[in-house]
Amino acid sequence: QDELLSLINKNEHLSRVVLDDCQLVQDIKARAETLRIPSYQFLWGDMLAWGVCVDADPERGINFINQAAEQGLAEGLEQLGRYYSQGKLVQPDKERAVVYLREASVLGNLKAQIQLAELFIAGYGSPYDYEDAYHWLYNAITADKSTHEKISECMRELEKLMHPKAVRKAKRPLNS
Question: Would you tell me how many other CB atoms lie within 10 Å of the CB of residue 73?
């Protein structure tokens, strides 16, 4: 489970299935459909959505990713948010993207936090949520220089949209 989540976070989960010569398809399907393990629902959904080792069935794929998201898998929530934001496999819906990305952000998903801030900066979502977005980014930890720069850029842009008092309040420790 932990290894699979690590592969998902590095976006290497589908290439690993292919690298294993698609030998684990039945096991992945059983863990997704029968055991309903969220990380395997996500993997199975992605395999179906993109036709990796199985016939492509985007509708079923999105359904499995959604099932994983409904169980609170941050990676599933982030991916659905990204797909709705970009209109990938689904009709574009920025407001729906905000909902998914906000939920993933609450769970600590940094990619979702950055995407959510970008949507806020572009004028989507509610100004009432800017403080939370800024707070998450202010407390984000990353060793990746480009991600760090992106976080700083988002924070600067959010500050322009926020009252100075809200910015001060958002600069509090993560668990306060």
Answer: 23
How far, CA to CA in Å, does 1 sit from each of 4, 38, 52, 96? 5, 9, 20, 28
Would you state the torsion angle of the CA atoms of residues 60, 66, 67, 71, taken in this order, to the nearest 10 degrees?
A: 170
H-state helical runs in 20-109: 25-33, 38-50, 58-70, 74-86, 94-106
DSSP annotation of 34 reads: T
Q: What is the pLDDT along the chain (176 residues), one digit of tens a residue?
A: 788 999 898 888 999 999 889 999 999 999 999 999 999 999 999 999 999 999 999 999 999 999 999 999 999 999 999 999 999 999 999 999 999 999 999 999 999 999 999 999 999 999 999 999 999 999 999 999 999 999 999 999 999 999 999 999 999 998 76
Q: Which amino acid is at 117?
A: A
